[in-house]
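Page 42, continued from yesterday. The earlier attempt failed because a stray header line got pasted into the input along with the sequence. Redoing it now with the clean sequence only.
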Amino acid sequence: MDKQAPTNITAVAVYLPEQWPQLLATAQDADQLEATWEEWYKILQEAKQNLARHGIICIDVYVDVDALLKYCWENNLPNNGSTRAEFAAHVLQEQRKHIVAWGKKRKKKRRK
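This time it went through. C-alpha cells are written below.
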C-alpha cells in the first residue's frame, strides 16, 4: 500500500459563536461575511469538504477575536480576510513550535 503525505495543508480560522458579533463589528470586510455564525459555519464546512476533495488538508485554528485585533494593531494591519488567514497561519505555526519543543523535552526526559 502506497501512503502519500498530504501535499497541501492550510490553516483555517474558526471563530466561536459568541465572538461572531465582535468579529462583524470590527472587520473591515464585514459586508462580505455572513450575518450569523451558523450561516458562516455551514459555508466553512462545505468549503473544507471541497478542499479535501482536492487534496488540501484543513487544520482548524480557533481564533480569539481579541487576539486577532491585537495582532492587527501590533502589525498595523486591517481586520480583513487576508489578515485573518495570515493570523490563523501564524497561530498554527506558533502552536507547532510549542508542540515540537514539548516533544524534544519529553524525548530528553526519556533518555535520562
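Notes: The chain has one domain: 8-111.
Reminder to self: strip header lines before submitting.
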